[in-house]
Write a structure and sequence with these properties.
Elements lengths: L1 H7 L7 H52 L6 H4 L4 H5 L3 H4 L2 E6 L2 E6 L9 E2 L5 E2 L5 E4 L2
Antiparallel strand pairs: 1-2, 2-5, 3-4
Protein name: Type II secretion system protein GspG C-terminal domain-containing protein
GO cellular component, one term: type II protein secretion system complex
Main location: membrane
């Protein structure tokens, strides 16, 4: 029984210095985690944009099946749900580019990270364009 009294009679709680040190360590660790997540956020936005391009490609193919031609501009494709895919923010819409009409089109997106390249689109083969990521009907 004396053993428990001796332990209890010791110092209780933490000093202000100890608490400040712990809060400082937690702050440093939290800032390191947030800095480490920055590239992941950029990559996730780029993956979403690339997915959007592929969804737009599908919308354009549906448009072609209905009208026997590709739209001259994406504003014509708005009826198919362009704004639902890309979103309505002007800064985000400016990342996407489209040229087309008749029997061909090219659609691309400027990404933030290192996702530069090209993609194979069905029978079209590999397409290279000035944007970071693009697909084409040709």
């Amino acid at each position: 029984m004396n053993f428990f009294k001796e332990i209890k009679s010791g110092r209780e709680g933490f000093t202000l210095i100890e608490m400040l040190v712990v809060v400082g360590i937690i702050g440093v660790l939290a800032s390191l985690v947030l800095v480490g997540l920055g590239p992941s956020r950029t990559a996730s936005r780029d993956v979403k944009r690339i997915s959007n391009v592929n969804q737009l490609r599908n919308l354009l193919e549906v448009y072609y099946l209905k009208n026997s031609k590709y739209p001259d501009s994406l504003s014509e494709a708005t009826l198919l749900g362009y704004n639902k895919v890309v979103g309505t923010e002007k800064t985000e819409q400016e990342r996407y580019g489209y040229t087309g009409g008749g029997s061909s089109y090219t659609i691309g997106v400027n990404t933030e990270g290192d996702q530069k390249g090209s993609v194979t689109t069905g029978e079209a083969g590999i397409v290279k364009c000035e944007t970071d990521y693009c697909v084409s009907s040709d």
